[in-house]
Amino acid sequence: MSLSIRRRLAVSIAIALILTLTALFFTLRFTLRGILNSDIDSQLAADLQRVSAPVAAAGSLEAADLSGIVEHSSFIAVVRDLDGRDLAATRRLDAASLALSEDEISRILNGDSIEQSTEVDGEPFTVRSSRLTAGRRVIGVVQVGESSAAVSSVTDALAIAFLAAGAAAAVLSLAVGYWLARSALKPIDDVTAVAREIEASDLSRRIASRGKPEEVQRLADTFDGMLQRLDTAFQQQRNFVLDVSHELRTPLTALRGNLDVLLMQEGLDEESREQLQRMSLEVGRLIRLTSNLLYLAHVDAGRGLDRRPVAMDDLCLEVYRQAKDLRPEVKLRLGEEDQATVMGDRDLLKQMILNLVDNGLKYTPPGGDVTLSLYTDDSSARIVVKDTGPGIPPADLPQIFDRYYRGEGSGRRGGSGAGIGLAIAEWVARAHGGRIEVESEAGKGSTFTVHLPLDSGPAH
Q1: Are the CB atoms for 370 and 407 separated by under 8 Å?
Q2: Domains assigned to the chain
Q3: Residue 74 zone, left/alpha/beta (φ > 0; ψ -120 to 50; rest)
Q4: What is the mean predicted confidence (pLDDT) over 211-238?
Q5: What is the three-class DSSP state of 318?
Q6: Which residue, 154, 199, 232, 282, is most buried by CB atoms nearer than 10 A?
């Protein structure tokens, strides 16, 4: 799962701060350790001078007061002869712990200085070994040491302090970073909220973001420009559909009227009558299609409802009479017909019922039947259209009311049709404060149920 931008910004700020603190810690640690080690080096050089000067002045190890020089010094010290045997050492020190190998003694006598780390009574020390001279003569070896505990204690304290400060800074930076990111992205959220409220049926609204950051302003202006272009294109499409639907309905209605007149003539042979009947049915289908397109254009244009009391039982009977001959091979039946009155647009309600009945007739195989029923209860009217078709696949059920959707599967939604009849029926139901439910079982047909609130006035 990807993180939101605000979380990414907060985490990025925290990571950047942690990396900065880590780099700062190692820089300070390296610098501080170098300073402390430099101080120890200076102290070791001074310690060597404190031991070497009296010995050089005495001229030999035997003549020098080694005990007075070494045993009571504030640092640790060991004086050895040319063979590496210890002659004097600080009292608290085990000189054997600083024993030198023959190779190390040889190197020291040749002028090298050797440093080593050791522990004295559990305390870390840095020890430097150098030669002792009297004039130009090398007369022995001296080892001096200073405690290096301060280096470890200071760097350890620094590490603990940075660890605690880093943890607190990480938590604080996450909180502050999230707050800053949220504040910075709030204008984007405002734009998103407005964009989410804009629907395809109403593209007139604009974001009109003013007084926002420059980047957000550019985004809002771009989005408003896109909405303007979409609104213009949709308006042109609606006008085209309206114009075409109006232009088609008149000649189609006249054509069907002429066909009906021809069918009423006596003496038509059977073949001519069947041809004219098929032509009349196809023209009727075209009329219903243009009516659906016209209603679809009204839906997109946000058409208001002409609300009046509508007797649903009369309307269902009217639809039955109009649709019973649409497919003679499928029987359209009238089931229960209760009396019910709803407040609504009569033309739209009729189109809704006609679309549901036409849908059932279209997908029911020859020999099957479609039943149109009307029921009432205390608060609602129920229009039920039940068919004996092949049913609707479960995968298609969630999309059957989507505009232009024609699912695959059993073939119910894969047949002829533009995929707008059920979409219009569902819109009409919602526009009247109702809803459509569908139940379907493969091989046993489907049942569409429309729930509409009853008119609060006297019953029809």
Answers
A1: no
A2: 5-153 (3.30.450.20), 198-303 (1.10.287.130), 306-453 (3.30.565.10)
A3: alpha
A4: 77
A5: helix
A6: 154
